[in-house]
Amino acid sequence: MDQPIIGFHQDDVGDWVADLACGHGQHVRHQPPLSIRPWVLSPEGRRAHLQSILQCKKCDEELLDSSGSAN
What we know:
The protein is α+β, with helices and mostly antiparallel strands and 71 residues long. The protein has one domain. The protein is 24% helix and 28% strand. It contains two helices and four strands. A hairpin with a 5-residue loop joins strand 1 and strand 2 (16-20). It is elongated and about 40 Å long.
């Protein structure tokens, strides 16, 4: 389910996590070559991505579980 980014925080090991409007979080790491997100390293870059849309996998899983399709 598409969710806007409403903020950011760092996890216990210092990786950045996007706070989504749904209340879930999603890591937004810059780990080339698999994840190219240099914007996450600066306050300006993170600020520029507020309200960007991410696919929330946890919301998708919850939707599947509640519909009875998952099991």
